[in-house]
Amino acid sequence: MFGPPLVTRLVAHPSTALSGRVSVPGDKSISHRALIFGALAVGETRIDGLLEGEDVRATARILGQLGAEVRRDAAGCWRVRGVGIGGLAEPDDLLDFGNSGTAARLLLGVLAGHPFTAFATGDASLRRRPMGRVIDPLTRMGASFIARSAGRLPLAITGAAAPAPQVYRLPVASAQVKSAVLLAGLSAPGETIAIEPEPTRDHSERMLRAFGAELRVEDGPEGRAVTLLGQPELTATPVAVPGDPSSAAFPLVAGLICDRSELTLPAVGVNPLRAGLFETLAEMGADLTLENRRELAGEPVADLRVRTSALKGVEVPPGRAPAMIDEYPVLAVAAAYAQGTSVFRGLGELRVKESDRLAAVARGLAACGVAVEETEDSLTVLGRGPGTVPGGAEIAADLDHRIAMAFLVLGLAAQAPVTIDDGRTIETSFPGFASLLRGLGAEIEESEAA
Ligand code: S3P
To answer: Candidates 325, 331, 356, 403: which one to mutate for ligand 1, based on the most atoms within 8 Å of Cβ?
Structure first.
Protein backbone atom coordinates (compact mmCIF):
# COMPACT_ATOMS: atom_id res chain seq x y z
CA MET A 1 0.00 0.00 0.00
CA PHE A 2 3.01 2.34 0.25
CA GLY A 3 3.99 3.26 -3.29
CA PRO A 4 4.92 6.42 -5.09
CA PRO A 5 2.22 9.08 -4.54
CA LEU A 6 -0.48 9.32 -7.19
CA VAL A 7 -0.54 12.29 -9.51
CA THR A 8 -3.44 13.48 -11.67
CA ARG A 9 -2.45 13.87 -15.29
CA LEU A 10 -4.73 16.12 -17.26
CA VAL A 11 -4.85 16.39 -21.03
CA ALA A 12 -6.71 19.22 -22.81
CA HIS A 13 -7.74 18.31 -26.36
CA PRO A 14 -8.76 20.76 -29.06
CA SER A 15 -12.41 21.64 -28.42
CA THR A 16 -15.00 23.83 -30.12
CA ALA A 17 -18.48 25.16 -29.45
CA LEU A 18 -18.21 25.50 -25.67
CA SER A 19 -21.62 26.56 -24.44
CA GLY A 20 -23.76 26.85 -21.36
CA ARG A 21 -24.31 28.70 -18.11
CA VAL A 22 -22.22 27.63 -15.11
CA SER A 23 -21.42 29.03 -11.69
CA VAL A 24 -17.75 29.22 -10.76
CA PRO A 25 -16.73 28.50 -7.14
CA GLY A 26 -16.80 31.17 -4.44
CA ASP A 27 -14.16 33.88 -4.22
CA LYS A 28 -11.02 32.62 -2.50
CA SER A 29 -9.99 35.95 -0.98
CA ILE A 30 -13.47 36.63 0.40
CA SER A 31 -13.85 33.04 1.67
CA HIS A 32 -10.66 33.22 3.77
CA ARG A 33 -11.72 36.57 5.17
CA ALA A 34 -15.28 35.47 5.98
CA LEU A 35 -13.94 32.60 8.10
CA ILE A 36 -11.33 34.78 9.81
CA PHE A 37 -13.63 37.70 10.62
CA GLY A 38 -16.29 35.21 11.70
CA ALA A 39 -13.79 33.67 14.13
CA LEU A 40 -12.89 37.10 15.57
CA ALA A 41 -16.51 38.27 15.90
CA VAL A 42 -18.91 37.76 18.74
CA GLY A 43 -21.76 35.41 17.76
CA GLU A 44 -22.35 33.04 14.88
CA THR A 45 -21.51 34.00 11.29
CA ARG A 46 -23.23 32.11 8.50
CA ILE A 47 -21.38 31.91 5.20
CA ASP A 48 -23.05 30.90 1.94
CA GLY A 49 -21.12 30.03 -1.19
CA LEU A 50 -17.83 29.46 0.64
CA LEU A 51 -15.08 28.17 -1.63
CA GLU A 52 -14.42 24.60 -0.52
CA GLY A 53 -10.94 24.44 -2.02
CA GLU A 54 -7.90 23.18 -0.10
CA ASP A 55 -6.65 26.73 0.62
CA VAL A 56 -9.82 27.82 2.38
CA ARG A 57 -10.14 24.48 4.15
CA ALA A 58 -6.67 25.12 5.60
CA THR A 59 -7.91 28.41 7.07
CA ALA A 60 -11.03 26.70 8.46
CA ARG A 61 -8.96 23.91 10.01
CA ILE A 62 -6.46 26.32 11.58
CA LEU A 63 -9.19 28.53 13.07
CA GLY A 64 -10.57 25.34 14.61
CA GLN A 65 -7.12 24.55 16.05
CA LEU A 66 -7.15 28.06 17.56
CA GLY A 67 -10.46 27.48 19.33
CA ALA A 68 -13.13 28.90 16.99
CA GLU A 69 -16.00 26.56 16.14
CA VAL A 70 -16.16 26.11 12.37
CA ARG A 71 -18.93 23.87 10.99
CA ARG A 72 -19.99 22.81 7.50
CA ASP A 73 -23.80 22.54 7.29
CA ALA A 74 -24.11 21.76 3.57
CA ALA A 75 -22.18 22.34 0.35
CA GLY A 76 -20.83 25.90 0.54
CA CYS A 77 -22.83 26.66 3.66
CA TRP A 78 -20.67 27.07 6.77
CA ARG A 79 -21.07 28.52 10.26
CA VAL A 80 -18.38 30.05 12.45
CA ARG A 81 -18.90 30.68 16.16
CA GLY A 82 -16.45 33.47 16.93
CA VAL A 83 -14.44 33.98 20.09
CA GLY A 84 -14.05 37.79 19.92
CA ILE A 85 -10.88 39.78 19.19
CA GLY A 86 -7.96 38.43 21.22
CA GLY A 87 -9.96 35.34 22.22
CA LEU A 88 -8.14 32.65 20.23
CA ALA A 89 -6.22 29.97 22.15
CA GLU A 90 -2.74 28.43 21.82
CA PRO A 91 -2.81 25.56 19.33
CA ASP A 92 -1.45 22.24 20.59
CA ASP A 93 0.05 21.25 17.25
CA LEU A 94 1.71 22.63 14.14
CA LEU A 95 -0.43 24.90 11.90
CA ASP A 96 -0.26 23.76 8.26
CA PHE A 97 -1.12 26.49 5.73
CA GLY A 98 -0.79 24.01 2.87
CA ASN A 99 -0.36 25.83 -0.47
CA SER A 100 -2.02 29.06 0.68
CA GLY A 101 -0.11 32.36 0.86
CA THR A 102 -3.32 34.15 1.85
CA ALA A 103 -3.96 31.79 4.79
CA ALA A 104 -0.34 32.20 5.90
CA ARG A 105 -0.10 35.99 5.72
CA LEU A 106 -3.58 36.76 7.08
CA LEU A 107 -3.43 34.24 9.93
CA LEU A 108 0.06 35.41 10.95
CA GLY A 109 -1.53 38.86 11.25
CA VAL A 110 -4.21 37.40 13.52
CA LEU A 111 -1.65 35.46 15.60
CA ALA A 112 0.48 38.61 16.04
CA GLY A 113 -2.28 40.00 18.28
CA HIS A 114 -2.48 36.90 20.51
CA PRO A 115 0.15 36.43 23.27
CA PHE A 116 1.02 32.77 22.68
CA THR A 117 3.44 30.81 20.53
CA ALA A 118 2.44 28.87 17.44
CA PHE A 119 4.49 26.86 14.95
CA ALA A 120 3.59 27.02 11.28
CA THR A 121 4.53 25.41 7.99
CA GLY A 122 3.19 24.83 4.49
CA ASP A 123 3.75 22.73 1.39
CA ALA A 124 6.92 22.84 -0.72
CA SER A 125 5.58 25.80 -2.76
CA LEU A 126 4.64 27.90 0.29
CA ARG A 127 7.92 27.07 2.04
CA ARG A 128 9.80 28.84 -0.75
CA ARG A 129 7.68 32.03 -0.59
CA PRO A 130 8.71 35.17 1.33
CA MET A 131 7.11 35.75 4.73
CA GLY A 132 9.48 38.63 5.57
CA ARG A 133 6.91 40.99 4.08
CA VAL A 134 4.58 40.24 7.03
CA ILE A 135 7.26 39.41 9.62
CA ASP A 136 8.59 42.97 9.32
CA PRO A 137 5.38 44.93 10.11
CA LEU A 138 4.16 42.36 12.64
CA THR A 139 7.50 42.55 14.52
CA ARG A 140 7.05 46.32 14.73
CA MET A 141 3.69 45.71 16.40
CA GLY A 142 5.36 43.57 19.07
CA ALA A 143 5.21 40.01 17.73
CA SER A 144 8.39 37.93 17.53
CA PHE A 145 9.41 35.29 15.01
CA ILE A 146 11.98 32.59 14.48
CA ALA A 147 11.96 31.73 10.80
CA ARG A 148 14.10 29.89 8.29
CA SER A 149 16.58 31.88 6.17
CA ALA A 150 15.06 34.67 4.03
CA GLY A 151 12.02 34.71 6.32
CA ARG A 152 10.59 31.45 5.03
CA LEU A 153 8.40 28.79 6.63
CA PRO A 154 8.52 26.81 8.85
CA LEU A 155 8.48 29.49 11.51
CA ALA A 156 7.51 30.11 15.11
CA ILE A 157 5.51 33.19 16.05
CA THR A 158 4.90 34.59 19.51
CA GLY A 159 2.16 37.20 19.43
CA ALA A 160 2.45 40.52 21.25
CA ALA A 161 1.19 40.74 24.83
CA ALA A 162 0.46 44.43 24.27
CA PRO A 163 0.25 44.99 20.47
CA ALA A 164 1.20 48.53 19.45
CA PRO A 165 -0.57 50.45 16.69
CA GLN A 166 1.60 51.65 13.83
CA VAL A 167 1.73 53.54 10.57
CA TYR A 168 3.08 51.07 8.01
CA ARG A 169 4.06 51.98 4.45
CA LEU A 170 3.88 48.81 2.38
CA PRO A 171 7.00 48.33 0.26
CA VAL A 172 4.97 46.23 -2.22
CA ALA A 173 1.35 46.52 -3.35
CA SER A 174 0.00 43.47 -1.52
CA ALA A 175 -3.50 42.96 -0.14
CA GLN A 176 -2.17 40.10 1.97
CA VAL A 177 0.34 42.36 3.73
CA LYS A 178 -2.23 45.15 4.15
CA SER A 179 -4.70 42.67 5.61
CA ALA A 180 -2.10 41.18 7.98
CA VAL A 181 -1.34 44.66 9.35
CA LEU A 182 -5.05 45.45 9.78
CA LEU A 183 -5.79 42.08 11.42
CA ALA A 184 -2.98 42.64 13.93
CA GLY A 185 -4.23 46.21 14.40
CA LEU A 186 -7.58 44.84 15.60
CA SER A 187 -5.83 43.87 18.86
CA ALA A 188 -3.94 47.17 19.28
CA PRO A 189 -5.36 50.28 20.96
CA GLY A 190 -5.66 53.43 18.81
CA GLU A 191 -5.21 53.79 15.07
CA THR A 192 -3.32 51.35 12.86
CA ILE A 193 -2.60 52.81 9.44
CA ALA A 194 -1.56 50.79 6.37
CA ILE A 195 -0.43 52.89 3.40
CA GLU A 196 -0.28 51.04 0.08
CA PRO A 197 1.67 52.33 -2.94
CA GLU A 198 -1.15 51.25 -5.30
CA PRO A 199 -4.70 50.33 -4.27
CA THR A 200 -5.06 46.56 -3.84
CA ARG A 201 -8.17 44.42 -3.36
CA ASP A 202 -10.26 45.88 -0.53
CA HIS A 203 -12.20 42.82 0.64
CA SER A 204 -10.79 43.13 4.18
CA GLU A 205 -11.86 46.76 4.40
CA ARG A 206 -15.37 46.03 3.13
CA MET A 207 -15.81 43.09 5.48
CA LEU A 208 -14.34 44.90 8.52
CA ARG A 209 -16.96 47.61 8.04
CA ALA A 210 -19.72 45.04 7.61
CA PHE A 211 -18.66 43.41 10.90
CA GLY A 212 -18.82 46.80 12.66
CA ALA A 213 -15.22 48.10 12.70
CA GLU A 214 -14.46 51.80 12.18
CA LEU A 215 -12.33 52.35 9.10
CA ARG A 216 -11.22 55.34 7.00
CA VAL A 217 -9.76 55.16 3.49
CA GLU A 218 -7.96 58.21 2.07
CA ASP A 219 -5.95 58.72 -1.12
CA GLY A 220 -2.87 60.88 -0.66
CA PRO A 221 0.52 61.60 -2.23
CA GLU A 222 2.04 58.41 -0.74
CA GLY A 223 -0.78 56.17 -1.92
CA ARG A 224 -3.94 54.87 -0.29
CA ALA A 225 -4.06 55.04 3.52
CA VAL A 226 -6.37 52.67 5.39
CA THR A 227 -6.90 53.67 9.02
CA LEU A 228 -8.43 51.19 11.45
CA LEU A 229 -9.56 52.05 14.95
CA GLY A 230 -8.28 49.18 17.09
CA GLN A 231 -10.05 46.99 19.64
CA PRO A 232 -13.54 47.24 18.11
CA GLU A 233 -16.17 44.68 18.90
CA LEU A 234 -16.84 42.72 15.74
CA THR A 235 -20.39 41.42 15.42
CA ALA A 236 -21.23 38.19 13.59
CA THR A 237 -22.63 39.04 10.14
CA PRO A 238 -23.93 36.78 7.35
CA VAL A 239 -21.67 36.63 4.28
CA ALA A 240 -22.73 35.55 0.77
CA VAL A 241 -19.61 34.87 -1.27
CA PRO A 242 -19.62 35.95 -4.95
CA GLY A 243 -18.11 33.78 -7.69
CA ASP A 244 -14.35 34.23 -7.94
CA PRO A 245 -13.32 36.45 -10.88
CA SER A 246 -9.87 34.84 -10.78
CA SER A 247 -11.49 31.42 -11.31
CA ALA A 248 -14.03 32.74 -13.85
CA ALA A 249 -11.04 33.95 -15.88
CA PHE A 250 -10.30 30.38 -17.06
CA PRO A 251 -13.67 29.41 -18.63
CA LEU A 252 -13.93 33.02 -19.80
CA VAL A 253 -10.73 32.87 -21.83
CA ALA A 254 -11.64 29.36 -23.04
CA GLY A 255 -14.90 30.84 -24.37
CA LEU A 256 -12.97 33.58 -26.18
CA ILE A 257 -10.40 31.36 -27.89
CA CYS A 258 -12.40 28.19 -28.69
CA ASP A 259 -14.26 28.49 -31.96
CA ARG A 260 -18.08 28.99 -31.95
CA SER A 261 -18.40 29.33 -28.16
CA GLU A 262 -20.85 31.23 -26.00
CA LEU A 263 -20.87 31.07 -22.20
CA THR A 264 -22.58 32.73 -19.26
CA LEU A 265 -20.95 32.80 -15.83
CA PRO A 266 -23.48 34.14 -13.31
CA ALA A 267 -22.83 36.15 -10.11
CA VAL A 268 -19.10 36.72 -10.52
CA GLY A 269 -17.38 39.36 -8.38
CA VAL A 270 -16.56 42.52 -10.35
CA ASN A 271 -14.98 44.58 -7.57
CA PRO A 272 -13.08 47.35 -9.44
CA LEU A 273 -9.88 46.35 -7.60
CA ARG A 274 -10.16 42.86 -9.14
CA ALA A 275 -11.47 43.83 -12.57
CA GLY A 276 -8.23 44.50 -14.49
CA LEU A 277 -8.70 41.41 -16.67
CA PHE A 278 -12.14 42.48 -17.89
CA GLU A 279 -10.78 45.91 -18.84
CA THR A 280 -7.80 44.36 -20.62
CA LEU A 281 -9.90 41.82 -22.54
CA ALA A 282 -12.23 44.61 -23.64
CA GLU A 283 -9.19 46.47 -25.00
CA MET A 284 -8.24 43.29 -26.88
CA GLY A 285 -11.62 43.31 -28.60
CA ALA A 286 -13.26 40.55 -26.55
CA ASP A 287 -17.01 40.07 -26.93
CA LEU A 288 -17.54 40.17 -23.16
CA THR A 289 -20.47 41.81 -21.39
CA LEU A 290 -21.12 42.29 -17.69
CA GLU A 291 -24.88 41.95 -17.29
CA ASN A 292 -27.31 42.30 -14.41
CA ARG A 293 -24.91 44.21 -12.15
CA ARG A 294 -25.90 44.05 -8.47
CA GLU A 295 -24.47 43.80 -4.95
CA LEU A 296 -23.92 40.62 -2.96
CA ALA A 297 -23.01 41.14 0.71
CA GLY A 298 -21.24 44.43 0.05
CA GLU A 299 -19.42 43.30 -3.11
CA PRO A 300 -20.41 44.18 -6.71
CA VAL A 301 -21.26 41.15 -8.90
CA ALA A 302 -22.44 40.64 -12.49
CA ASP A 303 -23.25 37.85 -14.92
CA LEU A 304 -20.44 37.50 -17.45
CA ARG A 305 -21.40 36.71 -21.06
CA VAL A 306 -18.66 35.80 -23.45
CA ARG A 307 -18.49 34.76 -27.11
CA THR A 308 -15.61 33.61 -29.32
CA SER A 309 -13.70 36.70 -30.36
CA ALA A 310 -10.98 37.85 -32.74
CA LEU A 311 -8.51 39.26 -30.19
CA LYS A 312 -5.77 41.76 -30.84
CA GLY A 313 -2.53 42.38 -28.90
CA VAL A 314 -2.57 44.77 -25.96
CA GLU A 315 -0.17 46.70 -23.71
CA VAL A 316 -1.03 46.47 -20.03
CA PRO A 317 0.46 49.24 -17.86
CA PRO A 318 2.18 48.34 -14.56
CA GLY A 319 -0.41 50.30 -12.54
CA ARG A 320 -3.07 47.77 -13.50
CA ALA A 321 -1.14 44.80 -12.13
CA PRO A 322 -2.65 44.77 -8.60
CA ALA A 323 -6.17 44.60 -10.08
CA MET A 324 -5.36 41.47 -12.09
CA ILE A 325 -2.28 40.00 -10.46
CA ASP A 326 -3.59 36.41 -10.52
CA GLU A 327 -4.89 36.67 -14.08
CA TYR A 328 -1.65 37.10 -16.03
CA PRO A 329 -1.13 33.39 -16.77
CA VAL A 330 -4.50 33.06 -18.50
CA LEU A 331 -4.22 36.54 -20.05
CA ALA A 332 -0.94 35.41 -21.61
CA VAL A 333 -2.86 32.47 -23.10
CA ALA A 334 -5.43 34.87 -24.59
CA ALA A 335 -2.51 36.94 -25.94
CA ALA A 336 -1.05 33.85 -27.64
CA TYR A 337 -4.29 33.54 -29.67
CA ALA A 338 -4.45 37.27 -30.42
CA GLN A 339 -3.32 38.95 -33.60
CA GLY A 340 -0.24 41.05 -32.80
CA THR A 341 2.09 41.60 -29.87
CA SER A 342 1.09 41.99 -26.20
CA VAL A 343 3.27 43.53 -23.51
CA PHE A 344 2.62 43.18 -19.78
CA ARG A 345 4.70 45.30 -17.41
CA GLY A 346 5.15 45.60 -13.65
CA LEU A 347 5.05 41.85 -13.04
CA GLY A 348 7.79 41.52 -10.37
CA GLU A 349 5.28 40.08 -7.86
CA LEU A 350 4.54 37.16 -10.20
CA ARG A 351 7.95 35.74 -9.31
CA VAL A 352 6.86 35.05 -5.70
CA LYS A 353 3.47 33.44 -6.27
CA GLU A 354 2.79 29.69 -5.91
CA SER A 355 5.61 29.33 -8.46
CA ASP A 356 7.74 31.85 -10.33
CA ARG A 357 4.77 32.50 -12.59
CA LEU A 358 6.55 34.82 -14.96
CA ALA A 359 9.14 32.13 -15.74
CA ALA A 360 6.51 29.36 -15.80
CA VAL A 361 4.27 31.23 -18.27
CA ALA A 362 7.20 32.14 -20.54
CA ARG A 363 8.54 28.56 -20.49
CA GLY A 364 5.11 27.01 -21.07
CA LEU A 365 4.20 29.31 -23.96
CA ALA A 366 7.56 28.66 -25.64
CA ALA A 367 7.01 24.89 -25.24
CA CYS A 368 3.62 25.31 -26.94
CA GLY A 369 5.21 27.11 -29.90
CA VAL A 370 4.51 30.73 -28.91
CA ALA A 371 7.37 33.26 -29.09
CA VAL A 372 7.85 35.23 -25.87
CA GLU A 373 10.33 37.64 -24.32
CA GLU A 374 10.78 37.69 -20.57
CA THR A 375 12.56 40.37 -18.52
CA GLU A 376 12.87 40.66 -14.74
CA ASP A 377 9.37 42.16 -14.53
CA SER A 378 7.73 42.09 -17.94
CA LEU A 379 6.44 39.63 -20.51
CA THR A 380 6.01 40.11 -24.24
CA VAL A 381 3.86 37.59 -26.12
CA LEU A 382 3.95 37.44 -29.91
CA GLY A 383 0.38 36.48 -30.68
CA ARG A 384 -0.12 33.86 -33.39
CA GLY A 385 -3.82 34.46 -34.08
CA PRO A 386 -6.87 32.19 -33.73
CA GLY A 387 -6.33 28.46 -34.27
CA THR A 388 -2.61 28.74 -34.92
CA VAL A 389 -0.99 27.83 -31.57
CA PRO A 390 0.78 24.46 -31.98
CA GLY A 391 0.41 23.20 -28.35
CA GLY A 392 1.48 19.56 -28.02
CA ALA A 393 3.62 20.11 -24.90
CA GLU A 394 3.69 18.64 -21.41
CA ILE A 395 3.67 21.37 -18.77
CA ALA A 396 4.95 20.95 -15.19
CA ALA A 397 2.43 22.57 -12.83
CA ASP A 398 5.07 22.89 -10.07
CA LEU A 399 2.36 23.06 -7.35
CA ASP A 400 0.79 26.10 -9.05
CA HIS A 401 -2.96 25.80 -9.69
CA ARG A 402 -3.14 28.79 -12.03
CA ILE A 403 -0.30 27.52 -14.24
CA ALA A 404 -2.11 24.17 -14.51
CA MET A 405 -5.46 25.76 -15.43
CA ALA A 406 -3.99 28.37 -17.82
CA PHE A 407 -2.23 25.74 -19.93
CA LEU A 408 -5.26 23.46 -19.98
CA VAL A 409 -7.20 26.40 -21.42
CA LEU A 410 -4.43 26.92 -23.97
CA GLY A 411 -4.72 23.25 -24.96
CA LEU A 412 -8.45 23.57 -25.70
CA ALA A 413 -7.79 25.81 -28.71
CA ALA A 414 -4.38 24.44 -29.75
CA GLN A 415 -3.56 22.28 -32.76
CA ALA A 416 -2.32 19.40 -30.55
CA PRO A 417 -3.29 18.38 -26.97
CA VAL A 418 -1.55 19.93 -23.96
CA THR A 419 -0.75 17.77 -20.91
CA ILE A 420 -0.36 18.90 -17.29
CA ASP A 421 1.92 16.58 -15.34
CA ASP A 422 -0.05 16.88 -12.10
CA GLY A 423 -3.28 18.82 -11.70
CA ARG A 424 -4.01 17.98 -8.07
CA THR A 425 -3.04 21.51 -7.08
CA ILE A 426 -6.13 22.83 -8.91
CA GLU A 427 -8.12 21.66 -5.86
CA THR A 428 -6.64 24.58 -3.88
CA SER A 429 -8.81 27.16 -5.65
CA PHE A 430 -11.11 25.52 -8.22
CA PRO A 431 -12.46 22.14 -7.13
CA GLY A 432 -14.17 20.42 -10.06
CA PHE A 433 -12.40 22.56 -12.70
CA ALA A 434 -12.04 19.78 -15.27
CA SER A 435 -15.60 18.53 -14.90
CA LEU A 436 -17.01 22.08 -15.06
CA LEU A 437 -15.22 22.63 -18.36
CA ARG A 438 -16.31 19.22 -19.63
CA GLY A 439 -19.88 20.26 -18.83
CA LEU A 440 -19.41 23.17 -21.25
CA GLY A 441 -18.22 20.81 -23.98
CA ALA A 442 -14.45 20.90 -23.44
CA GLU A 443 -12.50 17.69 -23.89
CA ILE A 444 -10.27 17.26 -20.83
CA GLU A 445 -9.02 13.79 -19.95
CA GLU A 446 -8.06 12.97 -16.39
CA SER A 447 -6.04 9.96 -15.27
CA GLU A 448 -4.23 8.93 -12.12
CA ALA A 449 -0.63 7.84 -12.45
CA ALA A 450 2.11 6.79 -10.07
C1 S3P B 1 -4.74 37.87 -2.21
C2 S3P B 1 -3.84 38.82 -2.63
C3 S3P B 1 -2.89 38.63 -3.75
C4 S3P B 1 -3.30 37.45 -4.63
C5 S3P B 1 -3.70 36.24 -3.83
C6 S3P B 1 -4.87 36.58 -2.90
C7 S3P B 1 -5.59 38.16 -1.06
O8 S3P B 1 -1.62 38.37 -3.22
O9 S3P B 1 -2.24 37.10 -5.49
O10 S3P B 1 -4.09 35.18 -4.67
O11 S3P B 1 -6.57 37.42 -0.83
O12 S3P B 1 -5.33 39.14 -0.34
P13 S3P B 1 -0.63 39.56 -2.79
O14 S3P B 1 -1.24 40.27 -1.65
O15 S3P B 1 0.65 38.89 -2.40
O16 S3P B 1 -0.49 40.41 -4.01
So the answer is: 325
